[in-house]
UniProtKB/TrEMBL annotation:
Top-level taxon of the source organism: Bacteria
UniProt key word Ribosomal protein: yes
Matches recorded under SUPFAM superfamilies: Nucleic acid-binding proteins (SSF50249)
Name of the protein: 30S ribosomal protein S1
One GO cellular component term noted in the UniProt record for this chain: ribosome
Keywords of the record: Repeat, Ribonucleoprotein, Ribosomal protein, RNA-binding
Organism this protein belongs to: Parasedimentitalea denitrificans
Gene3D superfamilies on file: Nucleic acid-binding proteins (2.40.50.140)
Amino acid sequence: MEDFEALLNESFEMDTPDEGSVVKGKVIAIEAGQAIIDVGYKMEGRVDLKEFSNPGEEAELAVGDEVEVYLRSAENAKGEAVISREMARREEAWDRLEKAYANEERVDGAIFGRVKGGFTVDLGGAVAFLPGSQVDVRPVRDAGPLMGLKQPFQVLKMDRRRGNIVVSRRAILEESRAEQRAEVIANLTEGQAVDGVVKNITEYGAFVDLGGVDGLLHVTDMAWRRVNHPSEILTIGETVKVQVIKINKETHRISLGMKQLQDDPWDLVAAKFPLETVHTGRVTNITDYGAFVELEPGVEGLVHVSEMSWTKKNIHPGKIVSTSQEVEVMVLDIDSSKRRVSLGLKQTQRNPWEVFAEAHPEGTEVEGEVKNITEFGLFIGLEGDIDGMVHLSDLSWDERGEDAIQSYHKNDVVQAVVSEVDVEKERISLSIKNLGGDKFAEATGGVKRGTIVTVEVTAIEEGGIEVVYEGMKSFIRRSDLSRDRAEQRPERFNVGDKVDVRITNVDSKTRRLGLSIKAREIAEEKEAVAQYGSSDSGASLGDILGAALKSGD
């Protein structure tokens, strides 16, 4: 009896499972959506069938199947064992996941729900958190196709005590991409032409899929011509032929080009666009320093702001030309090594100073509007949108320039004479005072110092008299009114009197005639003495003059 009792107790100890442990059981029946499981020692429990299914799948369970369940309690109020397949799976999963985490191995799971900041993943019993940033290498807008799909994940972090597991799908994709990338790159060589699919377009270029690895096709390598935006010539999903320009083995970055597969238009630039030839081009870009003009696809030249207009200085190029405008330009210089062409816009038109010089020789009268008044003269607008300048000294014969300029105002229409045209310096000198010729030169052209002329008295002043000769005004000082001091009185003359005077000076610079009655009288006396007598003969001056007068009679 003692032996039997010992064996019986030993049997009880061996067969009776501990609460809170995972035990094996046998499905003995399936009814009402539950599986009835015999866990031994005449203990049976019920488990919902959904605990035996994976997310999105039906439970595959049949009578007679052996399963592992978690024994929560040996008996409940109904006398049944309280068991859980889900908790058993969780315990089993945690053991498996801890080993995988320690060995940095991948684990299989399925995304089954969406939570704030990411998704929930069933890892075969344990629920993990998949952050949104770890779903894919690129942001995922629609995660629908990934839901319920069994796929590998990398465990990033786990804490069994708190029940937290964080996984990543992105790490798996990056690893596989890196392997694929390395394989594709190993088969590529610089200079090789390959086909690719445009995956993404940015401001600066496009990313092209070369079969598992992306290469950057920069906007400057798409065409020989200027490309403002890659979307001008590429569309997403388009298959294009590109050349591998450079491969960085360390960073696995690949630079691609399309224009390298086309003929370089610069090889023929010098032959097609000789210096000083004129061509029609299209304005492609305007900057502060000039405008770029496309001569042909891939060949652009710069029209510097200084070469845009003969007359419009210090003006923004955008006020002379506009984008997409067709213009005629002249080739000024070509630097094939630097791929630069210097163009001129103004050279396609005649120099307006040359045209003006041909049409208006010196001495020609012109008419124009006063554009500007400065401290040194007037600027007059002329034909051809150019200006001429009238210096202060060329405003008037009679007035000081500073005084004469006060009579002029902006926008006044004036007439002037062309004095000089300097085409090289782009200067035109004008004169207002020379209109109608040089009156002083005309009036004094036939006279010289010592000549006796007749003048008309125009004004009587205290210091002398004002007279006019051939339209030129002059002034005879009191001391020059007579040889006789008693006769040096201005009041003895009347306005309108005609008086003979001797020219003592002709000053072309000051445009003044020096006149003297006294000098004329002295000259006449000397002439009479020389002709009719001598001071040594004892004859008086009255006798000599009387004889001279009689002779004149």
